Amino acid sequence: MRRIDFIVIHCTATPQDTRPEAIQHYWKEYLKWKNPGYHYLIEASGDVRQLATEERICNGVAGHNANSIHVSYIGGVDADNKPLDNRTPAQRQSMRVLIIKLKKQYPQAQIQGHRDFPFVKKACPCFDARQEFNDFTAIVNSI
Ligand SMILES: [Zn+2]
């Protein structure tokens, strides 16, 4: 099994109604990626799409992919393409459930945002993931 040290939170930096297929198409046809960008994609409806098994390496954060699981919500920009945490209540809920599940699976993994890695200039995921999921170890241990 792959060693997982990071559960990384992202946003797609696209409109909230962007279809997962369009994002996958972009990775494959424009960026020419062999692997998806994220393992899990959370739609505005709260639906969670798994795009890759957790054993596969995804292209979430350059230099940190071998030991990471990547989770992204669709959205993260306003109408002018400026960073905005516009997660729907359903997305927040699904993200929480998914992160709890992953943290149980990989108790040693740190939960952090894309922007929390060194030298990252992006706003992704447009909120403080470390702070939001800080209480998780306690929650996970009590379940
Ligand atoms: Zn990102």
Give your account of this protein's structure.
With 143 residues, this protein is an alpha/beta fold. The protein has a single domain (6-142), classed as Lysozyme-like, CATH 3.40.80. 27% of the residues lie in helices and 15% in strands. The protein has 4 helices and 5 strands. It has a 5-stranded mixed beta sheet with strand order 3-2-4-1-5, with helices on one face. Strand 2 and strand 3 (48-50) form a beta hairpin. Helix 2 (89-105) packs across helix 4. The protein is globular and about 40 Å long. The two termini are 24 Å apart. The mean pLDDT is 94. Bound molecules: zinc ion. Zinc ion binds next to loops. The site of zinc ion has 3 residues, from loops.
**Number of helical runs?**
4
CATH class: Alpha Beta
How would you name the CATH homologous superfamily?
Peptidoglycan recognition protein-like
Task: Give the class from helix and strand content and strand pairing.
Answer: alpha/beta
Mean pLDDT: 94
CATH architecture: 3-Layer(aba) Sandwich
How many structural domains does the protein architecture include?
A: 1
CATH fold-level name? Lysozyme-like
Distance between the termini: 24 Å
Beta-strand percentage?
15-25%
The major beta sheet can be summarized as: 5 strands, mixed
GO molecular function: N-acetylmuramoyl-L-alanine amidase activity
Domain N-acetylmuramoyl-L-alanine amidase: 2-125
Protein name: N-acetylmuramoyl-L-alanine amidase
Keywords: Hydrolase
